[in-house]
């Protein structure tokens, strides 16, 4: 593998594999990069095909021996970036990093490589490691990469994975963690990565009442069932006043009808709150207690009915909102995936067909020239 810098105009740095070994004279002796311009130290000054690092030219291109102090035998070539590490800042003298020989900045000359010679070399597609077997001229590499089916793209379903264009349809259909799958309970399309969460909360998932062990319930019906389940433990409605009785619905209803069981609780509450005074006759106090109990019972029943009504409305609104949100996510996911996949495949096939036509025309021209 060779690293190119500045050879392909629109690609600052590219790593390619040449079919044939490239000449060492095209490479920086330190970093190995192939670039159009290299610098080397020379014991002579010239302005023919070379230029001094300081930009000056002498004697109309005639070679002129440098003064003895500037003579050197270092013949290594360096790219511009490596040269900057030898002559740091305003330094004019440095050492070759390969042979430690002293070199002088004013003695460095620019050697320009014929870019066309580099571009005419045959290379493998840079996606060879992913399966592309295309070989082509380096000058054709840029156009080929725009349509190569083995190039990496981001999954349109936004799973975060990079996949080759060729394998994109298979990835989106069978591999992507964000592909659409069907819920085993409601059979609606959902995103795979949220499948477990959805199925655990799916309204159509069968559930079992933990009190009566009814197995024919759906999750959506569980709350209503628990409101009516006769075996679900309930508290006496006078628990705010201190009653600690609890039992099944039937047991609580029978308990609440026995007002004598609550008489001590009522009297204690009334005396503590000062609702009635102890200077009243016992019969009047008893009447007060009965009236308070009746009022509390009526108010409690009215409040419970109101709470149940509001709870049902809230539950209905939450369920409606959840279903609408699931449908919206499903629709957006499927639409984006289908459109992105279709556009990508059509565009790539079109480009591949154009390249095939060009290669076919070129092959026919070569065959015709051979026959002539």
Automatic annotation (TrEMBL):
GO biological process: regulation of canonical NF-kappaB signal transduction
One matching Pfam family: zf-TRAF
Organism superkingdom: Eukaryota
InterPro entries noted in UniProt: Znf_RING/FYVE/PHD, Znf_RING_CS, Znf_TRAF
Gene3D superfamilies per the UniProt record, alphabetical: Zinc/RING finger domain, C3HC4 (zinc finger)
Gene Ontology molecular-function annotations: zinc ion binding
Protein name in the entry: TNF receptor-associated factor 4
Species for this entry: Dermatophagoides pteronyssinus
Organism classification: Eukaryota, Metazoa, Ecdysozoa, Arthropoda, Chelicerata
Gene it is expressed from: TRAF4
